[in-house]
Design a protein that fits this description.
By secondary structure, the protein is α/β, with parallel strands linked by helices. About 40% of the residues lie in helices and about 20% in strands. It folds into 2 domains: about 1-150, Alpha/beta knot; about 165-225, Trp Operon Repressor, Chain A.
């Protein structure tokens, strides 16, 4: 899988992808991540890619021409399944969205800034708009990193134990159940006996019941979604 990230701050992005599971997946050739500095596509001598909005509202807007030029250059080199824009008013990112994107071959992620991008880009280039939450960040770089991490970690081979990724929270519409490891007792706090029993069928049932209970207590909205 290839991810091309269009950003004003490529140095900020590269550090994130040099650690942990994402880094190992890139080194294994499971994923490619490329960064494109939007300043390189500026039409001004100062490298600016923003301008004042028509209508006199406050703030700045990312200009249509340099961003369109960058996207078109990439699209001339290969087909892209999605051109994603990180926007506060986009669809809320979820595990199901990450699963969908992980099945694709090439995607572009455009990191928004300022008051956003010229609407003509959204109308003619962007195929999907994604928000990682109901809040506003200084830029879309963190959102792009979150999306990339969630997608790359579930690619086959990215995690040594692939079953582990399938048991993560949200994969089955539920939160993950409690987890324990050694020692079996610490300061009088014991691991539930069922987990030490070796009875895999009963353990699986216990984990499912715990997942239901935790979801009901912490995210009842997920249970409502599963019933719809």
């Amino acid at each position: 899988m290839r991810i091309d990230i269009l950003t004003l701050f490529p140095e900020m992005m590269t550090m994130f992808f040099q650690e942990s599971i994402v880094c190992r997946a890139i080194k294994k050739g499971i994923a490619e991540v490329h960064f494109h500095n939007l300043h390189d596509y500026s039409l001004t001598r100062y490298g600016s890619v923003d301008d004042y909005p028509y209508g006199g509202s406050a703030g700045m807007v990312m200009a249509v021409e340099p961003l369109a030029n960058c996207i078109e250059k990439l699209q001339a080199e290969r087909h892209y399944d999605e051109v994603i824009y990180t926007a506060p008013d986009g669809e809320l990112f979820s595990q199901q969205t990450a699963n969908q994107l992980s099945l694709l071959e090439n995607i572009i992620i455009l990191c928004g800034h300022y008051k956003g991008i010229d609407e003509r880009l959204r109308e003619h280039f962007i195929t999907r708009e994604i928000s990682i939450g109901d809040y506003v960040l200084s830029g879309g770089e963190l959102a792009a990193a979150v999306i990339s991490d969630a997608v790359i970690r579930i690619l086959p081979g990215a995690i040594g134990d692939e079953q582990s990724a399938l048991e993560d929270s949200f994969q089955d519409g539920l939160l993950a159940p409690p987890e324990y490891t050694r020692p079996p007792e610490f300061r009088g706090w014991r691991v539930p006996d069922i987990l030490l029993s070796g009875n895999h069928a009963k353990i699986a049932q216990w984990r499912y019941e715990q997942a239901i209970q935790r979801t009901r207590e912490r995210r009842p909205d997920l249970l409502k979604q599963s019933r719809n």
